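Comment thread on ticket #2218

A.B. wrote:
> Attaching the input chain for the structure job we discussed in standup.
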Amino acid sequence: MRWTQRTRSAVAALAVLGAALIAPAAPPAAAAEEGELTDLVNPFIGTENEGNTYPGAAVPFGMVQFSPDTGHNTGYDYSQNHIRGFSLVHLSGVGCGLGGDLPVLPTTGDVTETDYARYQAEFSHDTETASPGYYKVGLKTGIAAELTATARTGVQRYTFPATDKANVLLNAGQSLHRSVSSKVEVLDNRTVRTTITGSGFCQDTKPYTVYTITRFDRPFIAHGTWNGSTVTAGSMTGRDGAYVRFDTTKDRTVEATTALSYVDAHGAAVNLRAEGGRSFDQVRDAARHTWEGRLDTVRAQGGSDTLRRTFYSSLYRSFLAPNIGSDADGRYTGWDQNIHRARDFTYYQNWSLWDTYRTQTQLLSLLAPDEARDMAISVIRIDEESGWLPKWGYGTVETNIMTGDPVTPFLTNAYQQGLLKGYEERAYRALKKNADGVPPADSPAVGREANREYIAEGFAPYVKGRPHVKPGDSDYDHGASATLEYALSDAMLAQMAHDLGHADDAARYAARSQNYRKIFDTSTGFFRARDASGAFTGPADPARSEGFHEGTAWQYQWLVPQDLPGMVGLIGGEQAANDRLDSFFAYDRLVQDPAKTAREVWVNGPYDYYNADKYNPQNEPDLIAPYTYLSTGQPWKTTDVVHAALTLFTDAPTGMTGNDDLGTMSAWNVLSSIGIFPVQPGHDTWGLSTPAFERVDLRLDRHYYPRGALTVTAPGTSDARRYIQSARIDNAPYGRTYLTTDALRHIRSLAFTVGTDPSGWGTGPEDGPPPLHPAHRY
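C.D. wrote:
> Ran it. Output below, let me know if you need it in another format.
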């Protein structure tokens, strides 16, 4: 059968629309459990064992993430006990240091040290608390520090001992970057301005500049600046930092608001005027109210307290990025380094696309579609202003970290979710240029770096030791996985081209989506890298394979979501595929002891990506893999694997499975706990599995989802009762293991009946997610 987007949508939708038109509305949600949803969020989850999250204050998608830095590469580590400063910018869960701009620290006495590694303050977790939009810590110097935030400002309150030498140090010259240049100006007896230029993320990158202005709530009585280690009292300008001093013998508190801009000093002042002027308590309460509204888009009932805390903490982290990049007046610095103005949308930045295109992108399209639309428009503007689409963008620059072509499924997802109305052709032009070319030498972007060889030969070659032409990662270092990622993106772009009427392009991209077959080694039964001559290269052992980015051939074998039936055919059919899946997930051990198997067989350290033949639930290449069983006739095993992986999320500082990568792992937890997961990233297909909760109510935007809500129920679901026996959509029986976005737009309820044993639900030959366009041509 020739599956097109319209055919697939119709098949799923027709099964439910008739019932939806006559079915009663879903019953109202039960009364919320006592307390607010923000009370369930623990910002310390993931702050230890390289989860690399931060516990500080932010609002959803805010430009500012005001958080303590303890000396860890990416900011805060729960195992450390000194704070170097509270800085303005952090990325949740990244693996390399970036941000940490303008660390500020309160001190007492004379200012004699300018290196924050020397003047850092000791603290204890006993005096530390955090909740959405708020952070507080008692330093062992006797000073209490509190942080909160608006979208573009960080607000701080310090409670000092009684002293006439209460200082606030503003260290512009140190951050989480590899190199920083800075300038500090004391404008008057309440105001300090800085300009900070930083660079470096995993590897050297083009520099970018942030501008800050800090306004104190009362005059300081003295000030000074420093250049290097030289402190000059009374100086109005400096290179690396400034201190301001207060008399707190009577009034012991000092408040200040710091505004940030990536445009210029005027932009920082605009943001201060727009969002400053309120007391600390007012800003903290507003931030909490904002978070409460955002978290209230999902109401989960049932499950243990720990399950609810990990779920809502993951939902919280899913809304931390991407980040607002435009100032309150709409101006932003584009990737051409010129100033532009966003009209009728908010400009966003920080694009960890290799990570987020698989989970977080889809979660935001579901729960925050207006913001997701603006994010997609922002990416289109990057292409129009700089000449190329991003791969891994930070602030105003491209870092070229990671490989493949992640921007294509990011944008085609936005198209499939209906977020690009009026921008369809603009997005398509950018994607076509990206899919068919390579950025010129004078562009900072690498794009599809191996595209010439891929288009000519059908694969990206693995060229060991090839010098990097541009900073960042190189697709030639990871030719096998780059081939799989290119082919996935071609499949998604083919569908968009077809829908927009570009038939020739659609046929060409559909044909290229089959290029995964070009790196399949029949002698090993696995994918394998090819060198520039076309010969297979590297170890034949798929657990020791080279040419795969952060993984092995075992871990990349299922990254063919566009054509799983074709992949299954390559390895010998469904039985062979299920045998291999069982081995991959250590399934026999898994069903005996899920949690132990997850922790002792699957997980081997936060950065242990190579030399393994088992599932790696803490890294992106395997995020979709548990859902492969939906396509091999054994959907109950998806539930077994997913529920075992969910045990890795806890409400402790070590409760993240590796880097969170701007909400990627958190979004996986949220979607898998609800029971709907994007099994074909970049398309409109949602796989189904047993929810972790008895009931989840999703509040959806009626502009995109006319029904305005979706209720997912699974009465009695538990570790013992986790197998789907049957499913109903708006009271109509439903036997397939997937839904399309079109179907989600027209239903109100998805109800699962669960039991203690696997059933025949979803096991029919047509029940699994169909391939997009496996062998046909448009």
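A.B. wrote:
> Thanks. Noting for the ticket: The domain at 57-175+210-293 is CATH 2.70.98.10 (Beta-galactosidase; Chain A, domain 5).
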